[in-house]
Design brief:
135 residues; 4 helices
Length: 135
């Protein structure tokens, strides 16, 4: 079956965009998985720290020991804050990495699509550029 060159090029461009969309979707799943993993790790560390602190409080038998445990609260809060900051940094790095990969891939696909569409315009007999060139 004979089809116009422009139609074939449009189909090729559509397939290239579909491939790009599937790749971006895959990257999105990878990014979401990585971010969820980072959050689970941070929550796990915080839960472990809270359990340790709770056990220390339960083990207290006299007022001096209780004051020693209470004195650890600012340090523990600082550790929680540092853990939250580390999570934030890791999330930012992960998101930036996946955005960069997606941008690079989209630029590559856009170049392929432009080449396909450009070839169609250059070789299509009904091309406006050819009509202008003949006139």
């Amino acid at each position: 079956m004979n089809t116009p060159i422009g139609f074939d090029n449009a189909v090729q461009a559509g397939r290239a965009w579909q491939t790009a969309a599937q790749k971006i979707q895959s990257l999105s799943f990878d990014a979401a998985s990585e971010l969820m993993n980072l959050q689970v790790q941070a929550a796990s560390r915080q839960a472990e720290a809270m359990l340790t602190f709770g056990r220390e409080v339960q083990a207290v038998r006299d007022p001096e020991a209780f004051l020693g445990v209470v004195a650890k609260v600012p340090e523990a809060a600082g550790e929680h804050l540092e853990s939250a900051l580390e999570l934030g940094r890791n999330v930012a790095v992960s998101v930036a990495k996946h955005v960069e990969i997606a941008q690079d891939y989209l630029q590559e696909q856009a170049g392929h699509i432009a080449a396909v569409v450009g070839n169609g315009l250059a070789t299509s007999p009904a091309s406006p550029e050819k009509a202008t060139a003949k006139a």
